[in-house]
Amino acid sequence: MEKETKCIQAGYTPQNGEPRMIPIIQSTTFKYDTSEDMGKLFDLEASGYFYTRLQNPTNDHVAAKICALEGGSAAMLTSSGQAASFFSVFNICGAGDHVVSSSAIYGGTYNLFHVTMRRMGIDFTFVDPDCTDEELEAAFRPNTKAVFGETIANPALTVLDIERFANAAHAHGVPLIIDNTFATPINCRPIEWGADIVTHSTTKYMDGHDAAVGGCIVDSGKFDWFAHADKFPGLTTPDESYHGITYAEKFGLGGAYITKATAQLMRDLGSIQAPMNAYLLNLGLESLHVRMPRHCENALEVAKFLEQHEKIAWVNYPGLPGNRYYERAKKYMPDGTCGVVSFGVKGGRAAAEKFMKGLRVAMIATHVADAHTCVLHPASATHRQMNDEELKAAGVSPDLVRLSVGIENVRDIIDDLDNALSAV
Ligand SMILES: *Cc1c(COP(=O)(O)O)cnc(C)c1O
Question: Which residues line ligand 1 (CB under 6 A)?
Answer without folding.
Answer: 80-82, 85, 106, 108-109, 150, 154, 179, 181-182, 201, 203-204, 213, 215
